[in-house]
Design a protein that fits this description.
The protein has 541 residues and is of the alpha+beta class. It is 40% helix and 17% strand. Strands 6, 7, 8, 9 and 10 form a 5-stranded antiparallel β-sheet that branches. Strands 1-2-4-3 form a 4-stranded antiparallel β-sheet. Strand 7 and strand 8 form a beta hairpin.
Protein backbone atom coordinates (compact mmCIF):
# COMPACT_ATOMS: atom_id res chain seq x y z
CA UNK A 1 0.00 0.00 0.00
CA UNK A 2 1.29 3.43 -0.95
CA UNK A 3 0.21 6.56 0.92
CA UNK A 4 0.65 10.21 -0.08
CA UNK A 5 -0.52 13.15 2.04
CA UNK A 6 -2.33 15.62 -0.22
CA UNK A 7 -3.70 18.09 2.35
CA UNK A 8 -2.55 19.25 5.77
CA UNK A 9 -4.38 22.43 6.67
CA UNK A 10 -5.37 23.20 10.25
CA UNK A 11 -7.25 20.13 11.45
CA UNK A 12 -8.02 18.93 7.90
CA UNK A 13 -6.08 16.02 6.46
CA UNK A 14 -6.36 14.24 3.11
CA UNK A 15 -4.44 11.25 1.79
CA UNK A 16 -4.26 9.34 -1.47
CA UNK A 17 -3.96 5.63 -0.74
CA UNK A 18 -3.04 3.17 -3.47
CA UNK A 19 -4.01 -0.46 -2.87
CA UNK A 20 -2.30 -2.82 -5.26
CA UNK A 21 -4.13 -5.30 -7.45
CA UNK A 22 -1.83 -7.96 -5.95
CA UNK A 23 -3.16 -7.25 -2.46
CA UNK A 24 -6.78 -7.36 -3.62
CA UNK A 25 -6.20 -10.57 -5.54
CA UNK A 26 -4.57 -12.17 -2.50
CA UNK A 27 -7.69 -11.40 -0.49
CA UNK A 28 -9.83 -13.02 -3.20
CA UNK A 29 -7.66 -16.14 -2.93
CA UNK A 30 -8.16 -16.18 0.84
CA UNK A 31 -11.90 -15.92 0.42
CA UNK A 32 -11.95 -18.70 -2.18
CA UNK A 33 -10.04 -20.99 0.19
CA UNK A 34 -12.37 -20.22 3.10
CA UNK A 35 -15.53 -20.92 1.10
CA UNK A 36 -14.26 -23.90 -0.96
CA UNK A 37 -15.29 -26.61 1.58
CA UNK A 38 -18.94 -25.50 1.39
CA UNK A 39 -19.31 -24.83 -2.36
CA UNK A 40 -21.41 -27.31 -4.29
CA UNK A 41 -21.40 -27.73 -8.07
CA UNK A 42 -22.84 -30.46 -10.30
CA UNK A 43 -20.18 -33.02 -11.23
CA UNK A 44 -18.00 -32.35 -8.19
CA UNK A 45 -18.00 -33.82 -4.75
CA UNK A 46 -18.69 -31.32 -1.91
CA UNK A 47 -15.52 -29.40 -1.13
CA UNK A 48 -13.76 -30.51 -4.34
CA UNK A 49 -14.79 -27.68 -6.66
CA UNK A 50 -11.62 -26.22 -8.27
CA UNK A 51 -10.70 -22.67 -7.13
CA UNK A 52 -10.78 -21.35 -10.71
CA UNK A 53 -14.43 -22.43 -11.07
CA UNK A 54 -15.33 -20.81 -7.75
CA UNK A 55 -13.74 -17.62 -9.01
CA UNK A 56 -15.71 -17.88 -12.23
CA UNK A 57 -18.99 -18.43 -10.37
CA UNK A 58 -18.55 -15.78 -7.68
CA UNK A 59 -15.88 -13.53 -9.17
CA UNK A 60 -17.65 -10.12 -9.10
CA UNK A 61 -18.95 -10.58 -5.56
CA UNK A 62 -15.60 -11.88 -4.32
CA UNK A 63 -13.71 -9.01 -5.95
CA UNK A 64 -16.06 -6.38 -4.51
CA UNK A 65 -15.83 -7.90 -1.03
CA UNK A 66 -12.04 -8.15 -1.27
CA UNK A 67 -11.80 -4.51 -2.40
CA UNK A 68 -13.93 -3.31 0.52
CA UNK A 69 -11.86 -5.28 3.01
CA UNK A 70 -8.63 -4.02 1.49
CA UNK A 71 -9.85 -0.42 1.72
CA UNK A 72 -10.93 -0.89 5.36
CA UNK A 73 -7.55 -2.37 6.22
CA UNK A 74 -5.79 0.41 4.33
CA UNK A 75 -7.64 3.13 6.23
CA UNK A 76 -6.87 1.43 9.57
CA UNK A 77 -3.19 1.18 8.65
CA UNK A 78 -3.18 4.84 7.63
CA UNK A 79 -4.65 5.91 10.97
CA UNK A 80 -2.10 3.86 12.89
CA UNK A 81 0.89 4.88 10.79
CA UNK A 82 0.12 8.61 10.86
CA UNK A 83 -1.16 8.48 14.45
CA UNK A 84 -4.38 10.16 13.41
CA UNK A 85 -7.28 10.79 15.78
CA UNK A 86 -10.29 11.40 13.53
CA UNK A 87 -12.96 13.75 14.84
CA UNK A 88 -15.67 11.95 12.87
CA UNK A 89 -15.82 9.05 10.43
CA UNK A 90 -13.31 9.65 7.59
CA UNK A 91 -14.74 10.17 4.09
CA UNK A 92 -13.35 7.41 1.86
CA UNK A 93 -13.78 7.74 -1.92
CA UNK A 94 -12.74 5.24 -4.59
CA UNK A 95 -11.36 6.98 -7.67
CA UNK A 96 -13.51 6.93 -10.81
CA UNK A 97 -12.66 4.36 -13.44
CA UNK A 98 -11.54 1.55 -11.14
CA UNK A 99 -11.52 -1.84 -12.87
CA UNK A 100 -11.13 -5.29 -11.40
CA UNK A 101 -7.56 -6.49 -11.66
CA UNK A 102 -6.04 -3.03 -11.40
CA UNK A 103 -4.66 -1.00 -8.50
CA UNK A 104 -7.32 0.86 -6.51
CA UNK A 105 -6.74 4.51 -5.69
CA UNK A 106 -8.64 5.82 -2.69
CA UNK A 107 -8.95 9.32 -1.23
CA UNK A 108 -9.27 9.50 2.56
CA UNK A 109 -10.41 12.90 3.87
CA UNK A 110 -10.88 13.63 7.55
CA UNK A 111 -10.61 16.15 10.33
CA UNK A 112 -8.45 15.27 13.30
CA UNK A 113 -8.93 16.12 16.93
CA UNK A 114 -6.75 18.98 18.09
CA UNK A 115 -3.74 18.37 20.30
CA UNK A 116 -4.85 19.71 23.65
CA UNK A 117 -2.34 20.45 26.34
CA UNK A 118 -3.35 18.54 29.47
CA UNK A 119 -5.62 21.05 31.20
CA UNK A 120 -4.69 22.25 34.66
CA UNK A 121 -7.40 21.62 37.23
CA UNK A 122 -5.71 23.55 40.01
CA UNK A 123 -7.35 26.65 41.41
CA UNK A 124 -10.95 25.76 40.59
CA UNK A 125 -13.30 27.61 42.94
CA UNK A 126 -17.05 27.05 43.00
CA UNK A 127 -20.00 28.24 45.02
CA UNK A 128 -22.67 25.71 45.98
CA UNK A 129 -26.10 27.27 46.44
CA UNK A 130 -28.25 25.06 48.66
CA UNK A 131 -31.96 25.30 49.34
CA UNK A 132 -33.42 23.67 52.47
CA UNK A 133 -36.64 21.76 51.89
CA UNK A 134 -39.47 23.09 54.08
CA UNK A 135 -43.06 22.00 54.68
CA UNK A 136 -44.37 24.77 52.41
CA UNK A 137 -42.44 23.42 49.42
CA UNK A 138 -43.59 19.88 50.14
CA UNK A 139 -47.26 20.90 50.40
CA UNK A 140 -46.95 22.92 47.19
CA UNK A 141 -45.67 19.80 45.44
CA UNK A 142 -48.55 17.73 46.83
CA UNK A 143 -51.09 20.37 45.74
CA UNK A 144 -49.54 20.41 42.25
CA UNK A 145 -49.82 16.64 42.11
CA UNK A 146 -53.43 16.74 43.34
CA UNK A 147 -54.36 19.29 40.68
CA UNK A 148 -53.07 16.91 38.01
CA UNK A 149 -55.36 14.19 39.33
CA UNK A 150 -58.42 16.27 38.54
CA UNK A 151 -61.72 14.50 38.98
CA UNK A 152 -65.28 15.53 38.18
CA UNK A 153 -68.63 14.93 39.86
CA UNK A 154 -71.99 14.67 38.14
CA UNK A 155 -73.82 17.98 37.85
CA UNK A 156 -77.62 18.47 37.89
CA UNK A 157 -79.15 17.75 34.50
CA UNK A 158 -80.17 21.39 34.17
CA UNK A 159 -76.57 22.60 34.70
CA UNK A 160 -75.21 24.54 31.75
CA UNK A 161 -71.62 23.70 30.94
CA UNK A 162 -69.07 26.40 31.75
CA UNK A 163 -65.32 26.79 31.39
CA UNK A 164 -63.65 24.25 33.64
CA UNK A 165 -66.53 21.79 33.47
CA UNK A 166 -66.30 18.44 31.74
CA UNK A 167 -68.80 17.29 29.14
CA UNK A 168 -69.27 13.77 27.81
CA UNK A 169 -70.23 13.90 24.14
CA UNK A 170 -70.96 11.83 21.06
CA UNK A 171 -69.93 13.48 17.79
CA UNK A 172 -69.95 12.98 14.05
CA UNK A 173 -67.86 15.25 11.82
CA UNK A 174 -68.08 16.08 8.15
CA UNK A 175 -66.39 18.31 5.58
CA UNK A 176 -68.67 19.61 2.82
CA UNK A 177 -71.29 17.17 4.06
CA UNK A 178 -69.01 14.14 3.72
CA UNK A 179 -67.91 12.18 6.80
CA UNK A 180 -64.18 11.63 7.19
CA UNK A 181 -62.10 8.92 8.82
CA UNK A 182 -61.87 9.27 12.57
CA UNK A 183 -64.52 11.99 12.65
CA UNK A 184 -66.98 9.97 14.69
CA UNK A 185 -66.80 9.04 18.36
CA UNK A 186 -68.82 8.25 21.45
CA UNK A 187 -68.52 9.10 25.14
CA UNK A 188 -65.56 11.42 24.70
CA UNK A 189 -64.72 13.44 27.81
CA UNK A 190 -63.83 17.07 27.09
CA UNK A 191 -62.76 19.60 29.71
CA UNK A 192 -63.93 22.98 28.45
CA UNK A 193 -61.04 25.43 28.35
CA UNK A 194 -58.34 22.75 28.43
CA UNK A 195 -57.31 23.39 24.82
CA UNK A 196 -57.60 19.66 24.15
CA UNK A 197 -59.48 20.22 20.90
CA UNK A 198 -58.80 22.51 17.96
CA UNK A 199 -59.56 26.21 18.47
CA UNK A 200 -63.22 27.06 18.67
CA UNK A 201 -64.58 23.60 19.40
CA UNK A 202 -64.65 23.75 23.20
CA UNK A 203 -65.95 27.34 23.28
CA UNK A 204 -69.08 26.25 21.41
CA UNK A 205 -69.88 23.74 24.15
CA UNK A 206 -70.24 26.48 26.76
CA UNK A 207 -73.88 26.75 27.82
CA UNK A 208 -74.78 23.24 26.70
CA UNK A 209 -76.70 20.92 29.05
CA UNK A 210 -77.54 17.23 29.13
CA UNK A 211 -79.52 16.16 26.05
CA UNK A 212 -78.59 19.15 23.92
CA UNK A 213 -77.73 18.57 20.26
CA UNK A 214 -75.38 21.15 18.81
CA UNK A 215 -73.67 21.80 15.51
CA UNK A 216 -70.08 22.83 16.12
CA UNK A 217 -68.36 24.60 13.22
CA UNK A 218 -64.57 24.75 13.17
CA UNK A 219 -61.65 25.19 10.80
CA UNK A 220 -58.78 22.72 11.05
CA UNK A 221 -55.38 24.40 11.57
CA UNK A 222 -53.07 24.65 8.56
CA UNK A 223 -50.48 22.57 10.47
CA UNK A 224 -52.96 19.76 11.25
CA UNK A 225 -51.15 16.45 10.64
CA UNK A 226 -53.88 14.87 8.47
CA UNK A 227 -53.18 16.19 4.98
CA UNK A 228 -56.74 16.31 3.62
CA UNK A 229 -58.00 18.16 6.72
CA UNK A 230 -55.42 20.97 6.78
CA UNK A 231 -57.30 24.27 6.72
CA UNK A 232 -60.60 22.48 6.04
CA UNK A 233 -63.92 23.87 7.35
CA UNK A 234 -65.78 21.15 9.23
CA UNK A 235 -69.05 20.64 11.07
CA UNK A 236 -69.58 18.30 14.01
CA UNK A 237 -72.97 17.09 15.11
CA UNK A 238 -72.56 16.90 18.88
CA UNK A 239 -74.81 15.33 21.48
CA UNK A 240 -74.15 16.25 25.10
CA UNK A 241 -74.69 13.18 27.31
CA UNK A 242 -73.32 14.40 30.64
CA UNK A 243 -72.10 17.57 32.29
CA UNK A 244 -69.69 17.25 35.22
CA UNK A 245 -68.22 19.84 37.57
CA UNK A 246 -64.72 19.83 39.08
CA UNK A 247 -64.49 18.10 42.43
CA UNK A 248 -62.12 19.54 44.99
CA UNK A 249 -59.29 17.24 46.02
CA UNK A 250 -59.01 17.42 49.79
CA UNK A 251 -55.45 16.69 50.83
CA UNK A 252 -55.76 14.38 53.82
CA UNK A 253 -55.16 10.77 54.84
CA UNK A 254 -57.96 9.61 52.55
CA UNK A 255 -56.30 11.29 49.57
CA UNK A 256 -53.03 9.56 50.43
CA UNK A 257 -54.82 6.22 50.76
CA UNK A 258 -56.37 6.71 47.31
CA UNK A 259 -52.77 6.69 46.04
CA UNK A 260 -52.01 3.43 47.83
CA UNK A 261 -50.14 5.03 50.74
CA UNK A 262 -50.72 4.58 54.45
CA UNK A 263 -51.21 8.22 55.40
CA UNK A 264 -50.66 11.85 54.49
CA UNK A 265 -47.40 11.78 56.46
CA UNK A 266 -46.13 9.01 54.19
CA UNK A 267 -47.11 11.07 51.13
CA UNK A 268 -45.26 14.08 52.57
CA UNK A 269 -42.19 11.92 53.11
CA UNK A 270 -42.20 10.75 49.49
CA UNK A 271 -42.79 14.25 48.17
CA UNK A 272 -39.98 15.62 50.34
CA UNK A 273 -37.61 13.15 48.67
CA UNK A 274 -38.80 14.36 45.28
CA UNK A 275 -38.35 18.02 46.20
CA UNK A 276 -34.88 17.24 47.58
CA UNK A 277 -33.94 15.60 44.26
CA UNK A 278 -35.18 18.61 42.28
CA UNK A 279 -33.26 21.06 44.46
CA UNK A 280 -30.11 18.96 44.34
CA UNK A 281 -30.43 18.90 40.56
CA UNK A 282 -30.72 22.69 40.43
CA UNK A 283 -27.70 23.07 42.71
CA UNK A 284 -25.66 20.74 40.52
CA UNK A 285 -26.75 22.58 37.36
CA UNK A 286 -25.60 25.91 38.78
CA UNK A 287 -22.25 24.49 39.89
CA UNK A 288 -21.70 22.74 36.58
CA UNK A 289 -22.28 25.93 34.63
CA UNK A 290 -19.84 27.86 36.77
CA UNK A 291 -17.30 25.06 36.31
CA UNK A 292 -17.69 25.07 32.54
CA UNK A 293 -17.42 28.85 32.45
CA UNK A 294 -14.06 28.63 34.21
CA UNK A 295 -12.81 25.95 31.83
CA UNK A 296 -14.03 27.86 28.76
CA UNK A 297 -12.38 31.07 29.94
CA UNK A 298 -8.97 29.46 30.38
CA UNK A 299 -8.80 27.29 27.24
CA UNK A 300 -8.97 28.26 23.59
CA UNK A 301 -8.06 25.99 20.69
CA UNK A 302 -9.31 25.15 17.21
CA UNK A 303 -12.11 22.62 16.98
CA UNK A 304 -13.02 20.37 14.02
CA UNK A 305 -15.43 22.25 11.72
CA UNK A 306 -17.42 19.11 10.91
CA UNK A 307 -18.12 18.54 14.61
CA UNK A 308 -19.20 22.15 14.98
CA UNK A 309 -21.48 21.96 11.95
CA UNK A 310 -23.04 18.72 13.19
CA UNK A 311 -23.65 20.30 16.58
CA UNK A 312 -25.02 23.50 15.06
CA UNK A 313 -27.36 21.50 12.80
CA UNK A 314 -28.78 19.75 15.86
CA UNK A 315 -29.25 23.05 17.70
CA UNK A 316 -30.86 24.71 14.68
CA UNK A 317 -33.23 21.83 14.03
CA UNK A 318 -34.48 21.96 17.61
CA UNK A 319 -34.97 25.72 17.47
CA UNK A 320 -36.82 25.56 14.16
CA UNK A 321 -39.18 22.98 15.63
CA UNK A 322 -39.75 25.22 18.64
CA UNK A 323 -40.59 28.37 16.69
CA UNK A 324 -43.26 26.50 14.75
CA UNK A 325 -45.30 26.58 17.95
CA UNK A 326 -45.04 30.32 18.46
CA UNK A 327 -48.05 32.58 17.97
CA UNK A 328 -46.31 34.12 14.95
CA UNK A 329 -43.94 31.50 13.46
CA UNK A 330 -42.80 33.79 10.65
CA UNK A 331 -41.68 36.51 13.07
CA UNK A 332 -40.08 33.92 15.32
CA UNK A 333 -38.10 32.48 12.40
CA UNK A 334 -36.92 35.94 11.36
CA UNK A 335 -35.71 36.68 14.87
CA UNK A 336 -34.07 33.29 15.11
CA UNK A 337 -32.27 33.84 11.82
CA UNK A 338 -30.86 37.11 13.15
CA UNK A 339 -29.18 35.17 15.95
CA UNK A 340 -27.75 32.42 13.74
CA UNK A 341 -24.14 33.48 14.36
CA UNK A 342 -24.67 33.44 18.12
CA UNK A 343 -25.97 29.89 18.04
CA UNK A 344 -23.06 28.89 15.84
CA UNK A 345 -20.73 30.30 18.51
CA UNK A 346 -22.60 28.21 21.07
CA UNK A 347 -21.94 25.11 18.95
CA UNK A 348 -18.22 25.94 18.93
CA UNK A 349 -18.24 26.35 22.71
CA UNK A 350 -20.05 23.07 23.27
CA UNK A 351 -17.65 21.10 21.09
CA UNK A 352 -14.59 22.74 22.65
CA UNK A 353 -15.81 22.02 26.18
CA UNK A 354 -16.66 18.44 25.22
CA UNK A 355 -13.13 17.86 23.93
CA UNK A 356 -11.70 19.53 27.02
CA UNK A 357 -13.68 17.35 29.42
CA UNK A 358 -12.70 14.28 27.43
CA UNK A 359 -9.04 15.23 27.69
CA UNK A 360 -9.33 15.83 31.44
CA UNK A 361 -11.07 12.51 31.93
CA UNK A 362 -8.42 10.58 30.00
CA UNK A 363 -5.56 12.37 31.78
CA UNK A 364 -6.98 11.48 35.20
CA UNK A 365 -8.22 7.97 34.52
CA UNK A 366 -11.96 8.65 34.59
CA UNK A 367 -13.73 5.63 33.13
CA UNK A 368 -17.16 4.22 32.49
CA UNK A 369 -17.14 0.65 33.74
CA UNK A 370 -18.41 -2.32 31.77
CA UNK A 371 -21.26 -2.72 34.26
CA UNK A 372 -22.25 0.93 33.87
CA UNK A 373 -22.16 0.63 30.09
CA UNK A 374 -24.29 -2.50 30.16
CA UNK A 375 -26.82 -0.72 32.35
CA UNK A 376 -26.93 2.21 29.90
CA UNK A 377 -27.57 -0.13 26.99
CA UNK A 378 -30.35 -1.93 28.84
CA UNK A 379 -32.00 1.36 29.81
CA UNK A 380 -31.84 2.65 26.23
CA UNK A 381 -33.23 -0.65 24.94
CA UNK A 382 -36.40 -0.11 26.97
CA UNK A 383 -37.39 2.62 24.53
CA UNK A 384 -37.78 0.02 21.79
CA UNK A 385 -40.41 -2.59 21.18
CA UNK A 386 -39.76 -5.81 23.12
CA UNK A 387 -39.06 -7.74 19.93
CA UNK A 388 -36.45 -5.16 18.86
CA UNK A 389 -34.53 -4.78 22.11
CA UNK A 390 -32.14 -7.63 21.42
CA UNK A 391 -31.30 -6.22 17.98
CA UNK A 392 -30.69 -2.80 19.49
CA UNK A 393 -28.33 -4.18 22.13
CA UNK A 394 -26.40 -6.10 19.47
CA UNK A 395 -26.23 -2.97 17.31
CA UNK A 396 -24.74 -0.84 20.12
CA UNK A 397 -22.24 -3.54 21.10
CA UNK A 398 -21.06 -3.90 17.49
CA UNK A 399 -20.99 -0.22 16.50
CA UNK A 400 -18.31 1.86 18.22
CA UNK A 401 -19.90 5.20 17.31
CA UNK A 402 -23.30 4.19 18.67
CA UNK A 403 -21.68 2.99 21.89
CA UNK A 404 -19.71 6.24 22.20
CA UNK A 405 -22.86 8.31 21.82
CA UNK A 406 -24.60 6.31 24.51
CA UNK A 407 -21.59 6.48 26.82
CA UNK A 408 -20.88 10.22 26.38
CA UNK A 409 -23.42 11.74 28.83
CA UNK A 410 -22.41 9.45 31.70
CA UNK A 411 -18.70 9.95 30.99
CA UNK A 412 -19.16 13.72 30.98
CA UNK A 413 -21.03 13.63 34.29
CA UNK A 414 -18.28 11.51 35.83
CA UNK A 415 -15.62 13.99 34.70
CA UNK A 416 -17.68 16.87 36.13
CA UNK A 417 -18.05 15.02 39.44
CA UNK A 418 -14.29 14.41 39.46
CA UNK A 419 -13.68 18.14 39.00
CA UNK A 420 -16.15 18.95 41.78
CA UNK A 421 -14.04 16.81 44.10
CA UNK A 422 -10.91 18.74 43.12
CA UNK A 423 -12.46 22.21 43.36
CA UNK A 424 -12.55 24.47 46.40
CA UNK A 425 -16.26 24.75 47.18
CA UNK A 426 -17.98 27.31 49.38
CA UNK A 427 -21.59 26.85 50.49
CA UNK A 428 -24.31 29.49 50.59
CA UNK A 429 -27.94 28.99 51.50
CA UNK A 430 -30.49 30.42 49.08
CA UNK A 431 -34.16 30.24 48.24
CA UNK A 432 -35.38 28.22 45.28
CA UNK A 433 -36.30 31.43 43.51
CA UNK A 434 -32.79 32.79 43.97
CA UNK A 435 -31.23 29.57 42.70
CA UNK A 436 -33.46 29.44 39.63
CA UNK A 437 -32.78 33.12 38.95
CA UNK A 438 -29.02 32.48 39.18
CA UNK A 439 -29.34 29.65 36.66
CA UNK A 440 -31.50 31.75 34.34
CA UNK A 441 -28.98 34.61 34.50
CA UNK A 442 -26.13 32.27 33.58
CA UNK A 443 -27.75 29.92 31.10
CA UNK A 444 -25.00 29.81 28.50
CA UNK A 445 -22.83 27.00 29.75
CA UNK A 446 -24.76 23.97 30.86
CA UNK A 447 -24.50 21.72 27.85
CA UNK A 448 -21.44 20.50 26.04
CA UNK A 449 -20.65 18.02 23.32
CA UNK A 450 -17.64 15.91 22.69
CA UNK A 451 -16.88 13.23 20.11
CA UNK A 452 -19.93 11.03 19.62
CA UNK A 453 -22.10 13.01 22.00
CA UNK A 454 -25.80 12.94 21.25
CA UNK A 455 -27.30 13.64 24.62
CA UNK A 456 -29.40 15.94 26.71
CA UNK A 457 -28.40 17.23 30.11
CA UNK A 458 -29.92 17.57 33.52
CA UNK A 459 -30.77 21.25 33.53
CA UNK A 460 -34.18 22.67 32.84
CA UNK A 461 -34.52 24.16 29.34
CA UNK A 462 -34.76 27.93 29.33
CA UNK A 463 -37.42 29.76 27.41
CA UNK A 464 -36.53 30.31 23.80
CA UNK A 465 -34.67 33.45 22.94
CA UNK A 466 -36.52 33.70 19.64
CA UNK A 467 -39.92 35.33 19.28
CA UNK A 468 -40.48 35.83 22.98
CA UNK A 469 -39.35 39.44 23.02
CA UNK A 470 -37.39 41.83 20.82
CA UNK A 471 -34.08 40.41 19.65
CA UNK A 472 -31.71 39.94 22.55
CA UNK A 473 -28.28 41.48 22.64
CA UNK A 474 -25.64 39.15 21.25
CA UNK A 475 -24.14 38.63 24.69
CA UNK A 476 -27.52 37.61 26.06
CA UNK A 477 -28.31 34.84 23.60
CA UNK A 478 -29.19 31.79 25.64
CA UNK A 479 -27.18 28.67 25.04
CA UNK A 480 -29.74 26.65 26.87
CA UNK A 481 -32.45 27.74 24.48
CA UNK A 482 -30.51 25.95 21.78
CA UNK A 483 -30.75 22.67 23.58
CA UNK A 484 -34.43 22.69 24.33
CA UNK A 485 -35.70 19.25 23.38
CA UNK A 486 -38.01 19.21 20.36
CA UNK A 487 -41.06 18.46 22.50
CA UNK A 488 -43.54 19.97 20.05
CA UNK A 489 -43.16 17.87 16.95
CA UNK A 490 -46.42 17.59 15.01
CA UNK A 491 -47.52 13.97 14.97
CA UNK A 492 -49.70 12.40 12.31
CA UNK A 493 -52.00 10.61 14.69
CA UNK A 494 -54.23 7.77 13.55
CA UNK A 495 -57.65 9.28 14.02
CA UNK A 496 -59.65 7.00 16.24
CA UNK A 497 -61.01 9.63 18.58
CA UNK A 498 -61.92 13.05 17.33
CA UNK A 499 -59.74 14.34 14.54
CA UNK A 500 -61.02 17.56 16.01
CA UNK A 501 -58.10 17.17 18.36
CA UNK A 502 -55.25 19.59 17.86
CA UNK A 503 -52.15 18.66 15.96
CA UNK A 504 -50.71 17.20 19.09
CA UNK A 505 -47.12 17.07 20.17
CA UNK A 506 -45.25 13.79 20.18
CA UNK A 507 -41.80 13.51 21.67
CA UNK A 508 -40.58 10.32 20.04
CA UNK A 509 -37.88 9.18 22.38
CA UNK A 510 -34.78 7.67 20.84
CA UNK A 511 -31.67 6.28 22.40
CA UNK A 512 -28.80 8.73 22.22
CA UNK A 513 -27.00 6.59 19.68
CA UNK A 514 -29.75 7.20 17.16
CA UNK A 515 -29.48 10.98 17.26
CA UNK A 516 -26.54 11.15 14.92
CA UNK A 517 -26.39 8.59 12.16
CA UNK A 518 -23.56 6.12 12.32
CA UNK A 519 -21.96 6.27 8.86
CA UNK A 520 -21.26 2.55 8.63
CA UNK A 521 -24.85 1.47 9.29
CA UNK A 522 -27.92 1.66 7.13
CA UNK A 523 -31.39 2.35 8.45
CA UNK A 524 -32.20 -1.33 8.14
CA UNK A 525 -29.49 -2.24 10.61
CA UNK A 526 -31.32 -0.70 13.52
CA UNK A 527 -34.62 -1.74 15.10
CA UNK A 528 -37.50 0.65 14.71
CA UNK A 529 -38.05 2.90 17.68
CA UNK A 530 -41.22 2.41 19.69
CA UNK A 531 -43.56 5.31 19.01
CA UNK A 532 -44.81 7.25 21.99
CA UNK A 533 -48.55 7.86 22.20
CA UNK A 534 -49.45 11.25 20.79
CA UNK A 535 -50.32 13.70 23.51
CA UNK A 536 -50.34 17.40 24.04
CA UNK A 537 -47.04 18.92 25.10
CA UNK A 538 -46.95 20.12 28.68
CA UNK A 539 -46.83 23.86 29.11
CA UNK A 540 -43.35 25.19 29.68
CA UNK A 541 -42.53 26.25 33.16
Amino acid sequence: MKTVETLNEGLKREYRVTITAKDIDARVDEEVKSMAPTVRMPGFRPGKVPPNLIRKMHGPALSADALNKAIDAGVRDLMAKEKLRPALQPAVTLADGYETGKDAEVTVALEVLPDIKTPSIDGLKLERLTVPTDDKAVMAKIEEFASQMKRFDDAPKTKKAATGDQVIIDFAGSVDGVAFDGGTGEDMAVEIGSGQLIPGFEDQLIGAKVGDAKTVKVTFPDEYPVENLKGAKAEFAVTVKEVKIPAASKIDDEFAKSLGLESLDKLKELMKDQVDQELNGLTRTYMKRKLLDQLAASHDFDVPPTMVEAEFAQIWQQLEQEVENEADPAAAKAELEADRDDYHAIAVRRVRLGLLLSEIGQAHGVQVSQQEMQRLIMQAAQQYRPEDRGRFMDYVQQDALAAAQLRAPLYEDKVVDFLFEKAEISDREATREELEAAIEADDDGGHVHGPGCGHDHDHKPAKKAAAKKPAAKKADVKEEAAEAAPAKKAAAKKAEAAPAKKAEAKAEEKPAAAKKAAPAKSAEDKPAAKKAPAKKAAAKK
